[in-house]
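Working notes for the structural subgroup meeting. M.R. asked for a predicted model of this chain before we commit to crystallization trials. I am recording the input and output together here so anyone reviewing the notebook later can reproduce the run.

Input as submitted:
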Amino acid sequence: MLLEFEKPIAELESKLEDMKHLAGDSDDQVNDAIKALEKKITELKKETFENLTGWQRVQISRHPDRPYTLDYIYEITSDFIELHGDRTVADDKAMVGGFGTIEGQTYMLIGQQKGRNTKQRQIRNFAKPIHDLPPNGRKSRPSRSHRCRAELLVLRAVVANQCRARQACRQNALRQSHGT
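Returned structure, recorded in token form:
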């Protein structure tokens, strides 16, 4: 699903793929045209994403295909072992925590997980930790104590764009309510 401001980039990328497919091992003029188009796409991406409005940031943060914590974890490590339970109440499914190896170093990985559809979101409590504790939640406290005992590094997933997008959305709503 493409957002409105991403469509020009997608069109150029489609043209680039067509050119690469048709060109094969063609002459230098075609290869130069491909390189020029690649450069144009890079510049357009940079220009587009540096000048996003508050609403466009909100759209990106709420995009259904946006990666979540487990997507990042499985992308950077292949041996993630998730820990369950918080020693006091139950397993907080909104919080994901466990061990993983990145380039030979073992890390404690902690983050919030939302879910891709309604059923998954209900299971994950819509990414809200139990008892409305701060983002580190009840589950990460025991995980951090394991880290201290094992002298591990902690990698905590923070979705800053979502926080900025929420703030921009609130500011926009305030401006509209005040008529400015």
